[in-house]
């Protein structure tokens, strides 16, 4: 299983490095949304709940772009048959696609979170960075699991541009709540983690549930 | 006694309400070549895709290399090579990168990639992105992809499409009759296909029909 997943992941990363179709689009989208919030709210800086909400809604909407493109190379270049004709189980495919999405999201956040801090955030993030990194990593894992599942569901449908956001965003609501609630105390002037353990626990539970669910369901996807 | 590589009994397959294949029964012994003939939309490609495990049969019995389809579909990929209309190559990767990717999926040593690139005459252009190659060169790479894991059964859909005579000759030992593999060959070149086949089946509107000029009317 590991060799198959590694081969698919390596191929996906190579294609993204060559085409630069997903990550740059997600980064540009995030920064554009921050600029829109900057002018739309007519505020130079945000903090607390509002800052946390803007950060998470933007990151999750950017994730929709990544999920929509996750099977693009297979769809546009006939590779789904290539995968089905190889002795690779669906779990390997799920692991590879989820890992690719996780890495794409992490790359986006390396640019988008500092951009958010510069464009919108009042209090600095410096002291809260370790907690924020843990929250982002757990959230990325959940988005990657759900995103790979939704991308595979939509891969061979005609209305995938509609199906991806309509399926993905409702499934991400628990993750949004936990991520925003965990981040909110880190974005106040009197920053200090409150109930962080509880929200990290919820994020971890979400990850475990959706990784297991995706592995169980993935076998039945991509069939004719 | 010669083993059957393919056995079909009353195979049926639909696309929605439209019947794509109905009442198809045949047997292909190991090492033999079956020519599948018929006009456009007759069901030839659908038949190949069912045999490859890419489409589920909707009725009848399908046994390929001893695997009952669709239940034992998982047994097929390691033993079947499929060369269809689509090359199944990523345009943004080079030929070598594509073949290495498929070799890794099949657990085949990478030395086999270089061996096949040489065999299909693509060593010099192996590092060019597939999007920069002509259709004929892409077809050569697609043939190499289908052969990477040394399959026992080759499913070939117009395998010589886009190939010039020299390239067709180059690929002959690999995908031709002399390869010794069991082959199912779809072709519009009726005389050529019949000349290299041990048996043939005609399809018209998804149903078996006599091989002859009326197939194309």
How does this model look, in words?
The complex is a heterodimer of chains A (224) and B (217). In chain A, 77% of the residues lie in helices and 0% in strands. Chain A is mostly helical. In chain A, α3 packs antiparallel against α6 and α6 crosses α7. The mean pLDDT of chain A is 90. Chain B is an alpha/beta fold and 217 residues long. In chain B, the strands form 2 sheets. A 6-stranded mixed beta sheet of chain B has the order 6-7-8-3-9-10, with helices on both faces. A 4-stranded antiparallel beta sheet of chain B has the order 2-1-4-5, covered by helices on one side. The longest helix of chain B is centred in the middle third of the chain and has 13 residues. Classes of the chains: A mainly alpha (224), B alpha/beta (217). At the A-B interface, α1 and α5 of A face α2 of B.
Write the layout of secondary structure elements.
The complex is a heterodimer of chains A (224) and B (217).
Chain A: H1 2-19, H2 23-40, H3 48-69, H4 72-77, H5 79-84, H6 90-119, H7 129-154, H8 160-171, H9 173-183, H10 196-218
Helix pairs in contact in A: 1-6, 2-3, 2-6, 3-6, 3-7, 3-8, 3-9, 6-7, 7-8, 7-9, 7-10, 9-10
Chain B: E1 4-15, E2 18-29, E3 33-37, H1 44-51, E4 59-64, E5 67-69, E6 80-83, H2 95-106, H3 111-119, H4 135-147, E7 153-157, H5 165-175, E8 182-186, H6 190-195, E9 199-204, E10 207-209
Parallel strand pairs in B: 3-8, 3-9, 6-7, 7-8
Antiparallel strand pairs in B: 1-2, 1-4, 4-5, 9-10
